[in-house]
User: Fold Flavin-containing monooxygenase ustF2 from Lachnellula cervina.
Amino acid sequence: MTIKPPRVAVIGAGLSGVVSAKHLKDSGVEVVVYERSSKSGGNWVYDERRAPEPIYPSLNPSQADLASINSEAASNGEQTQRSLNGDHGNGLKDDELGLAYAPPGPAYDGLTTNVPTNLQELKGYPWPEGNEQFVNVRVCGKYLQSYSREFGVEQVTKYNTRVENVEKRGDKWRVESTTLLLEGPNKGDITINSDEFDRVIVANGHYHASKVPDTPGLKEWKDTWPDKVQHSKSYRTPDGFKDQNILLIGAGVSSTDIARELSHVANKIYQSSRGGPYDLPIELLPPVASRVTEVAHFETPTKEQTKPGGVTLKDGQVLTDIDRVIVCTGYHFSLPFLRNFHSDSTAADKADDTVLVTDGTQMHNLHKDLFYIPDPTLAFVGVPFYTATFSFFEFQAIAVAAVFSGRAWLPTQDEMRTEYQERLQSKGSGRAFHDMKGEEAGYVKGLVDWVNSHAQSTDGPKVVGHSKEWLAQREVLRETFLKFLAGKESREREKHR
Assistant:
């Protein structure tokens, strides 16, 4: 008897979605990929249009960046059609339709990779010859789009199609979606679709739901000077920042990178830090930038003010000359199409055994950051941080494809739960739970060994893990960074003698 292969929905055509679809197809699985924008590549697509600003402070994680539409009307049926089509309601212009439906990602013009291409190569698909070790966002986007075409992912992808709701009905997953019409006389209208699948892979990334702190006075500044306060997601180029005094809120990767870009045009740059574990070393800041403590409050604007001004820091210092504010405080995990799996008011350390997202800092109840423990027919690819993302997410995709195609099988639910709880005890809840610094190679080896342990009995292909050369190069990068940190600590000790 011939067993019919499962149907799998993949949500998102960024890196995680494209590699997931490719390996599912290789396994003989029927795949449909949903992508709300008009091209693959996800965060590696540079779009010069600025992403719409989030609400200040940010909304609940369950709403994400769908708020620009949901604030006008619920995302279902005729109401959604009215909210998108200017002839039927809110008057959105043609060039605003795509922005409202599928906001651009956070990629800026000068964005480059921080991991060399020889550690980021996808299996069987070399980077084009002549590229440097660290490449611009456009090169990455083209690489992923070319990969998608080469391996037939393009043909199974529904573009301009946004997943609105996913729910389990019996033994099937029902995926409800809308498709935005961008051309023709009905431009701005949507079609409403529903389909059923045996499995679902969520690959929507975690750089779309902007996180904005509820700092006293920040909302009032945004309301008063909407063009002078922005989230880093909407930053594109240094244009417009010449001779400005800029406050960057947050001291992570995006804040430091933006500081380095703006250093060539800005007058002064302040980088506000809470002193958290994910702050980058202050030595990475350009000379024109200085690090200051966390913001206590923004001074209440007066009617006479024509530009922002005073900011009080938690150490008592007052910055009186601020022209622009860029909020670089990151993103929430968000699954707006799985709202029943959200609990916005719950702290991460209070999550129960069924919730997926609480306060937005963690994805809960996933076996190896991949399989939803209560129902492993729902899987996620691309959750962890601090990895060589291209290769790391591909190994995750290979593991999920092996399980979904029947070439590998999972431990029992009790065993998965025990392993999850042990990891939670070890790493703690919140963002740190997904931090892979120092754990990447071991994690990948574990996945490869597990899949290969089933290969003989299932007649599946053996997976080749990281090469010795890859591991050696990764270690060189790690040691270089550790030496940098050691030098920093030595300089700090000298300073305080």
About this structure: The chain has two domains: 7-208+333-457, 212-329. The chain has a mean pLDDT of 91. The longest helix spans residues 468-495. The CA atoms of residues 271 and 291 lie 5 Å apart.
